[in-house]
Amino acid sequence: MLFHEYLLSDYTDDKVILKVKQNEYTYKEIIEQVTVFEQGLRNAIITKSERVMILMENGLSAICMQLACSRLGVIYIPVSPYEPANRIQKIIEVYEPVAVLTEDDNPNNLLNDAIPFCNVTKGIVRTAPLREAKMHDHSQVTENDTLYIISTSGTTGNPKGIPMTHKGVLCFFNGMLSHCRVSTSDNIGTIAPLQFDLSLLDLGLAWGSKACFSVLSQALAYTPKKLIDELIRLRVTQFHSVPTVWTMIIGSAADRITQLTELKAILYAGDKFPVQNIMVLQQKLPGLRIINCFGPTECIAFSFYDIPVITSPDTQVSIGKGYPGNIFYLVDDNDELITAVDVPGELWVSNGALFNGYWNNEALSREKLTKDMFTGSNTNRVYKTGDLMSRAADGNYYFHGRKDSQIKINGNRVELDEIEQVVQEYTGVVDSVAVYQHRDDNPRIILFLYAGPGQAIAEESIRSYCRSKLPAYMVPAKIVITAEPLPVNVNGKTDRKKLLEQLKAPVSYNK
Fold first, then answer.
1. What does the alpha-carbon distance between residue 61 and residue 33 come to, in Å, rounded to a whole number?
2. d(Cα 346, Cα 331) in Å, to the nearest integer?
3. Residue 203 belongs to what H/E stretch?
4. The 3-state secondary structure of 302-321, one letter per residue
5. What pLDDT is attached to residue 154?
6. CA distance 178 to 183
7. What is the DSSP string of 25-40?
8. How many helices (H) and strands (E) does the chain have?
9. Please, what is the angle between helix 60-72 and helix 27-43, to 10°?
10. Is 426 exposed, middle or buried (0-12, 13-18, 19+ CB in 10 A)?
11. pLDDT tens-digit profile of 166-179?
């Protein structure tokens, strides 16, 4: 079975299955739009295994284009139209899409000669010359074919591509539904942007359960009272978001939470949910189901955990045991299994949803993917997550941070090294370090930079430069400029912990 077949089955023609802003769409209307896009791709001579970028907000066109690509075996790369132009250009250079598909003639004023866009509301046009395209592949699309490529932050400064097959995505969907399935009368609401794989999870849960799917505007994340109004208007029964959305609601609209009388469940991913905020929600909406979804983009996610009623703010929230089909290994620094409880180690995971390797990066693929050395299986692949975990006596796992510099801000995966590399290109910067400061109410990135003797660099100049080169969620919240070299530890490496201690703030690398 393929992605589109899984999602578009067992509906009646007149059932409303998608709501976007003020509009509602029936199953029949969705099928018609998917068919229009499919024919548009055919007319543009875009065929199996070729790549297109979907540069759109999450909504009708973006969803239907994903399904049209699935029908033809065209690989899609979802990207937010609010990314900086230079980052979009890098993604284009890395993946070489034959078309960049938008809903706007000039999305976010990014249009220029170097980035040719195609407004799908006016028809689909191939921007790559035919002579550069592969021979047209008319073979049947199979479950082992690549469905999409998620582009994440990379340590080299270039985007890191994570391709997922139809089979991998559907394996994840089945695992998710075994824990999270909703009824056909439910309405799943999301605020996730297209390039965040939480949006794919949301779509899979809604349509995999034959329920309705509601896409809310991302702008509502910054206007909590309007967000509550929209959740009420749409009669959302389960809402998915990153925890910061609820942090803002609790901070400025806590008195209105009790008005969400039809909300039965929420699911969160991408960041730690402050325990105090979980307690507030459980007090204001008794019986609310709160699901912690955890896992890397390399398999979308691997665990779902229903949070019990919490009575103490000191409670540590588990990530669960993994959905059926997952195999977890806790490994020490010598790659030996940890069998004792409550002992932290790196989590290695094996499941049917694992990707097959990074896009055009064999070295990194070999580093992160390995054969299952613990069972001797020649078929099982194991992914080294870089997540530090411990296993409790009841079998549940607990997250303790990251081994590397990869963190998440509002659900977006960020390599701190990428920020440093961008800043290093600024004239006058000698050394720079980006660190992650975990605070339950406001996790943030702090940039320390050494300007060198005689160099005068203004904080606002660096901030403006970062805004022009990086997505908004990667722009440091605080910038510290020093005339002294950055501190190093006994190994000669920059002492990130000492830098944060200078701010008299706790440090935690959180996913």
1. 8
2. 5
3. helix 198-208
4. CEEEECCCCCCCCCCCCCEC
5. 65
6. 13
7. EEHHHHHHHHHHHHHH
8. 13, 24
9. 60
10. middle
11. 999 999 999 999 99
